[in-house]
Amino acid sequence: MAEKLGDLLLTPAEMAAVDAAASDSGIASFGLMWSAGAAVAGAALRLYPGALRFAVLCGPGNNGGDGYVAARRLAESGAEVAVFHLGDLAKLRGDAARAKAECALVSQPVDVYIPTPGDVVIDAIFGAGLGRDVPSQVRSVIEQVTGAMVPVIAVDLPSGLDGRSGEVLGTAFRAAHTVTFMTRKPGHLLMPGRELCGSVEVADIGIPARIVKARSSGRIAENTPIQWAHLLPSAKLGTHKYKRGHLVVFSGETGKTGAARMSAAAGLKAGAGLVTIATPRDAMAENSAHLTAVMLCAVDDATALRDWLADERLQTFVLGPGFGTGVKTRDFAAELSGRHLVLDADGITSFRDDPRELFDLFAEGEPHLVLTPHEGEFARLFPDIAADKTLSKVDRAQVAAKRANAAIVYKGADTVIASPDGRALINTNAPVWLATAGSGDILAGIIGAYLAQGLPAFEAAAAGVYLHGEAGQRAGQGLTAEDLVAHVLPF
Question: What are the pLDDT digits (tens) for 92-141?
Fold first, then answer.
């Protein structure tokens, strides 16, 4: 299953369509429920063989049906099992009603459950389909389980978590382990969902991959090399520095040059054949004192930049790290509108008063702009999108990418990379210690290196984010930006 479906992510609505299509194709829906419940029971026995009791909390829908099957299988294995239900059992319908009828265990209302030492909770209340805040009796149970520090195995998704956005709907279980089916949902990867899911296991319950793929938009996936590695330039004996691209990074004024140097060094380490720092003349000596392999060129203003750009070999630029905000930054971006540009930090903030000015500069042709905003910078460029609470982080990145005709790197613990054509990747390999001063400057340089080597904007951004995370893992806890540069390696 993993080889066939890869890193595909399905929204809850898409997964519901998959379930319906599987049933329409003649696959018995109760058989799928049986397989799902059996997978949950298997995980519970494997992970907690010493549990004194499995407390199975069942909701009023098919997620609860999975729980009744799991309870039955656990009891048949000889485990001690207690079942608790939400709602009126007489109102169960379809496969859930059948699963309850075939589970001989007595069920009690969920609000009488009291966690005890030795319990393992199996959360089969809501799963991924919840679209409202959890009801009060479920909130109370979640609070008790959390306070008692009883381990939780979630069925599909911890109850209280939105499977589309990863947001908490009032409150949610914190699972030690989650068993989901066929594919993961965006909520398994987006924060805070990723933390609340614990380890995630994807169980193949027997739906053919062709049905899963046919009901998926195919637009959302995890950011892994399978998404972009085929576009990376291959290392050949005939390769030379000019074939590996020339990256230019703009430096700030004297006393504000370090960010550009880190960005440039990262670009060189990530595989760009040549890297030049374009610097104000008054910062030339300061930059020169710290550089060897990176070249320098004096560029004081937009007129000097325009003259330099007469050299058509200069195609890829990083603007923003330590550069300063204001008219000069906007003028430089305008001069670069026909080239490949990573706009970061000060470059983004310079357009906060009129983002449309930036978008108009890069509106034509294939996307050749990469924007790398963190949460605050995103709100400066896209205030209306950032304020729309109905949108998930993926939704926001997708809408922003289309508006800007740019690849968006919406940074954070769950960085989302989005393309104007609607594709989006969620990155998961970045360690928490990457949140340090200068880390974003290095990311901009890595993305610039892959743009310089010929990758399209979206794939260059995705590769850069992934390799930035890999460098962080190699550098280890306590890293500084200087440590991180040393661990940047091309893929």
Answer: 999 999 999 999 999 999 999 999 999 999 999 998 878 889 999 999 99
Binding residues for (6S)-NADPHX: 62-66, 127-133, 156, 259, 322, 374, 441
Phi, psi of 414 (to 5 degrees): -120, 55
Q: What are the structural domains of the chain?
A: 2-218 (3.40.50.10260), 225-486 (3.40.1190.20)
CA angle in degrees (0–180, nearest 5) for 319-325-327? 95
Annotated binding residues for K(+), written as ranges, equal 63, 123, 159
Distance CA(475)–CA(438), nearest Å, equals 14
Q: Is the pTM of this model over 0.85?
A: yes
For the annotated binding site for AMP, the residues are: 411-415, 440
Contact 427, 394 (CB under 8 A): no
Question: Cα–Cα–Cα angle for 78, 82, 88, nearest 5°?
Answer: 135
- Binding positions are 62-66, 123, 127-133, 156, 159, 259, 322, 374, 411-415, 440-441
